[in-house]
Amino acid sequence: MVTAMRNRLIKAAVISLLAGAQACSLGSSAENDTVEPIALQALDLYVSRSSFRQASFEQFKISSRRLFAECGRMAGGRQYSQYQKVTKLSEEDAESIAQAASKVKRFADSHELKLDEEGESNSMFDPGQLRIKITAGEGTTEIQTTLDTVATPAKSSTELINRLASEIRGVALRDSQSGTLCGNKNFFDLKSKAS
Question: pLDDT by residue for the chain (195 residues), tens digit each?
Fold first, then answer.
């Protein structure tokens, strides 16, 4: 009788563990889970791409809850800035960016990312460049790929990068008087998070 009771308890424990594990796997995804934000020290985002008329760039730097946004055109291997602005991030924006950066950093640090090699932004057929550098207490993570790879994400890794870039662009757009960055609401196919 004791053996039968013990077997029933073990069976019930195993069933509840399996049910809990199944619920966890069904209800979670890398994109939607809230993670503990990293202690973000600095974040750099750079994007560039050429069109029929010109090559353009945008870059963003975050440090000490301040966002530096810059955009402009490129010619002859040089960048010509047309807009620069420094914004103090609200607590909500800083938290949202840190959350998105945490997801990218943790994913990149725990997976071997197989991303397309960045382009050179020198012709309209070039896929462009996207570079992210996230510095936190755990170290620095750098990602380099094409703008096109992230603008139209096909994998979890590029979706996370897209969300981070869109989050940062959304804050910068909201703070610009024109509602654009150098006349662009989107940077090619890279959209901005609506505020």
Answer: 545 544 454 444 444 433 343 333 323 344 456 777 788 999 999 999 998 888 999 999 999 999 999 999 999 889 999 999 999 999 999 999 999 999 999 999 998 888 888 887 777 788 899 999 999 988 999 999 999 999 988 888 899 999 999 999 999 999 888 889 999 999 988 888 864
One domain, residues 47 and 143: yes
In a domain, 50, yes or no: yes
Give the chain's largest Cα–Cα span: 86
Distances (CA, A) of 6 to 15, 16, 17, 19, 89: 14, 15, 16, 20, 58
- Domain total of the chain: 2
108 and 79 fall within a common domain: yes
